Every structure is written in C-alpha cells, then in structure tokens.
C-alpha cells in the first residue's frame, strides 16, 4: 500500500514538473515573439526616444558645464528652450504638474524676497523649471510634439556648435583645446536627435 502511494505521488510530481517546464517554454516563446514584434513596430520610435533622452542629458550637461568651468561668451541660455523642446514626455509632464508648480513657486519666492541670497548660478535652472510650468498649451503640447519644435531644436544646436567652433578658433581647435572634446561632443549630440526626428518625419 505504501509503495503504491509513493509511486502515485512520484508520478504526480513528475507530471507537475512537466507542466511547469512546458509553461516556461511557452512563456519563453511568447517573450521572443513580443520582442520581435516590438522591434518591428517600434524600432524607429524606440531609437527616437533614446536619442531624445540623450539630447536632453547632453543639454543639461552643457548647462552645468557652463555654470561651473566652461564660462564662454556663447548664448548658452538657448539650452533652456532646447531642453524644453527635447525633454522626454514623462519628465516634462512631471515638471508641468503639481511638483513643478511648487518648485517654480519656491524659486520665485526666493528670487523676490531673498534676492541677495539667491545665487547667480540658479537663474537658468530656475527658468528651466518656470518654462514648462508657465508655457501655454500651444507650445507645451502642439509645437513641442511637432516638427516645428524639432526644427527649433536643430537651429539652436547648429547655432551653439558654430559659436563654439568660432570661439575656439576653428574646427581642429574645438577638439584639441582643454575641455574642447567634451564640449564639442556634447554639442554634436544636440544635433543627432533633431536630425533623426526630422528624417523620420519627412521620409
């Protein structure tokens, strides 16, 4: 009797292991199909999203660099509208929501009532917070997500790159001077996203 019970339990355990392994195999096949279909449908879109994140981080990096040790005469405040137009939607909606409003409110209060204690290096980051919060819907939704916003980003990137090359004394110097490579590389990254987005839009 005990032998029969043991065999029945052993058979049941083997059947359960077979069911679980077949379920895992089916999940593996479904995951492979999902990845294949996602790359077919959204491969270009995923590339655009990645380049948008990269361009935003490059612009923020250049902004920080300018506030710390780059210190050029270039109009680097143009990076603020560039970030406005290229910022990924998730971060943009977060800044446009309640959290962004509170940060903008605190920045305005500090600027108004504690003017002497408000550091100069906070001017541009403060405007970077204020811009998404105060922008009208025409700019925040229609132009930002259209080819017009991409074209503005491309124009800003081209202008800053040529100003940087002019300030360093030529294209070769922009890659050889101190901080030249990182600055030039960051400015080139500003161009990659809008060029890619425009090519996808018009082709």
UniProtKB/TrEMBL annotation:
It is a multi-pass membrane protein. Its main location: membrane. InterPro entries: COR413. GO terms for cellular component: membrane. The keyword Cytoplasm does not apply. Keywords: Membrane, Transmembrane, Transmembrane helix. The chain crosses the membrane at residues 41-64, 76-95, 146-162, 183-202. It is found in: Membrane. It comes from the Eukaryota. Belongs to the Cold-regulated 413 protein family. This is Uncharacterized protein. It comes from Punica granatum.
């Amino acid at each position: 009797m005990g032998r029969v019970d043991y065999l029945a339990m052993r058979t049941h355990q083997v059947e359960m292991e077979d069911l679980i392994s077949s379920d895992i195999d089916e999940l593996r096949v479904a995951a492979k199909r999902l990845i294949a279909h996602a790359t077919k449908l959204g491969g270009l879109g995923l590339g655009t999203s990645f380049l948008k994140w990269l361009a935003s981080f490059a612009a923020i990096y250049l902004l920080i660099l300018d506030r710390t040790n780059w210190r050029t005469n270039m109009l680097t405040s143009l990076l603020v509208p560039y970030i406005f137009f290229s910022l990924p939607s998730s971060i943009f909606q977060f800044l446009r929501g309640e959290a962004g409003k509170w940060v903008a409110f605190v920045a305005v209060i500090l600027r108004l009532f504690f003017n002497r204690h408000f550091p100069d290096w906070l001017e541009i980051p403060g405007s970077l917070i204020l811009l998404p919060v105060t922008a009208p819907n025409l700019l925040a939704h229609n132009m930002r997500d259209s080819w017009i916003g991409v074209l503005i980003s491309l124009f800003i990137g081209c202008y800053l790159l040529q100003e940087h090359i002019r300030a360093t004394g030529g294209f070769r110097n922009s890659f050889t001077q101190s901080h030249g490579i990182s600055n030039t590389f960051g400015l080139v990254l500003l161009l990659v996203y809008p060029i890619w987005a425009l090519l996808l839009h018009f082709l």
